[in-house]
């Protein structure tokens, strides 16, 4: 993973960690259900951004490297991994 992507994702995950702690406090404080669900949706959206950033980096770095290498086995492996993970994200 490229360094700037790793740092950006770590920063985002720290914010998400704070959001999850906030959700726990909301439950402890018996806050309104819709407010809690709204915050859960915000955490899911933030995690999706991390997921997208990691995938973007993977394609730009790992998959591109496999394509440039000319190694057909490595190319097939990277594409296969990508298809598998995208299938999991879909379902």
Automatic annotation (TrEMBL):
Keywords per UniProt: DNA-binding
CDD domains: CsoR-like_DUF156
Domain of life: Bacteria
Gene Ontology molecular functions: DNA binding
Pfam assignment, any one: Trns_repr_metal
InterPro entries from the UniProt entry: Metal_Tscrpt_repr, Metal_Tscrpt_repr_sf
Coiled-coil regions listed: none
Keyword Disulfide bond in annotation: no
Tagged with keyword Ubl conjugation: no
Protein family: Belongs to the FrmR/RcnR family.
Record protein name field: DNA-binding FrmR family transcriptional regulator
Lineage, top ranks: Bacteria, Pseudomonadati, Pseudomonadota, Alphaproteobacteria, Hyphomicrobiales
